Prior knowledge:
Blueprint: H1 3-12, H2 14-38, H3 46-65, H4 85-106, H5 111-143, H6 151-171, H7 175-211
Helix pairs in contact: 1-2, 1-5, 1-7, 2-3, 2-4, 2-5, 3-6, 4-5, 4-7, 5-6, 5-7
Amino acid sequence: MDFKNILEQIVTQPELHARWLNTLSMMENCGARKISASEHSHDVDLIVLKHAAEEARHAYYLKNQISKTGFDGCETYHPGTLLSPIRSFQYLHQLDTHVSRYLKEQCSLDGHELKYGSYLLVTYAIEVRADDLYPIYEEVLKAKGSSITMRMIIVEEKGHLEEMIEQMARFFQDWPKHGEFALGQEKQLFESWKNSLEVEVGKYYANLQEMA
């Protein structure tokens, strides 16, 4: 099943939709925290602050949209309020681990340079994914006549991607090569995450049929 079909099934059920929004909120919040954790104690530029602030705002925005689904019960990020909680929690951490190991071995980076280089590549890969994921979600929302919209996030994520490319070009001598590695690692994690979402959504619908 392709990702759009999974989203169509999610948006149709208020509980699944609420947990989906909560999952996205949690992942955006993890991104904001990762960015903040990568900051140097003194050398913090405006772009890094902007990214951290916007990721946190996206987490808030997504959480705030949950009430529009008509489902109550996603006040926290406890596993039961999320979709595919284990893979969702691990997604960003695993990507960061793979990228950090790569930069340490291939570029001999360590200390703050390693943290910053990893921040650049991980954020780049996630922004490329967001540039694909949120428009698909927005298309499904429109087709379902939902009052929820991702337009603000789509615009800001596109801006993030452009800024990440500029930052990588300044930091890495051969950023496209390193960027491709990060994209490859993220693609594997995304496919695993997508498959786990499909399984969970399928089980939800099977339970509905049993209860009918």
